[in-house]
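Progress report, Aim 2. The chain analyzed during this reporting quarter is listed below.
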Amino acid sequence: MIKNYIKAARLRTLPLSVSGIIVGSSIGNQVLYNHSELSHTSSSVLSTSTFWLAILTTIGFQVLSNFANDYGDGIKGSDKNRTGEARMVSSGAITPSQMKSAMIITTIFTLTIALLLIYIVFGSDNFGFSILFFGLGIASVAAAIKYTVGNSAYGYNGFGDVFVFLFFGLLSVVGSYFLYAKEINLKIFLPAISIGMLSTAVLNLNNLRDREEDKKNNKNTLVVKLGKRKAKKYHYFLILGALVSALIYVFLDFKSLYQLIFLIAFIPLIKNIKTVAQNAVSADLDSELKKVALSTFLFAILFGISQIF
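Predicted structure tokens for the chain:
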């Protein structure tokens, strides 16, 4: 039974989910280090409890989202003839009631970690910020569940891309940056846009792959609404837009050519554009999902490393 929940958690999606935390924390921690008068302050983001608690919180939200997607699509019948990994509710490996219980447990665990993170970062002196971030945590839970669950599930009405961009990109990067810097710098929105666009590109690939089945099941994703040809152009825009946004950030904050090391991650992403352009069989896009997700993770790591130069 445990292995079925592990499958439902879809571990391959986790690197993508933490990419925004890596970018935002790396930039925020470096800002904190540069402003600190304490000579013993470490410049390594990996040495901070804030980073690891933020990672755990994000993983919790992602697993909750995956459980909710499995549950929502399963009870609506959208996963009956899907391509790719089997879904646990639609296959009968996990019952709907069991999945609901797993969602409740995951929610409680994730919010507990989030509260610990908020307390460590803000303590009792910044009550307003604590309330704000807890509210964002509740919003993340609601967004994770409402993607496919309920009659007004936004994933069935073409708004999934908007929420992925906002939560995986803007909230993840800007929010984690704020945990360190305790301020908002408008430049931080540039790498946030990059992560948001790349994350949305993964969703778009998923929806391109499932377009025919989604159409049959009245799952009106943006791809279904746009059609295959326009959805491909939209995909090119997301990849290239992410590249441009990251380059603008480096230009505005230029210190060293080492900051361009992230361009390595765009080599497979540019190749992905060519693959998508030439694709004729939607099912063949399944292997591209992993490539784009891992390339986004690589981008986050390289972008984070570039902050120390």
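Residues 37-42 have pLDDT under 50 and may be disordered. The chain is about 70% helix and 0% strand. These observations will guide the mutagenesis work planned for the next reporting period.
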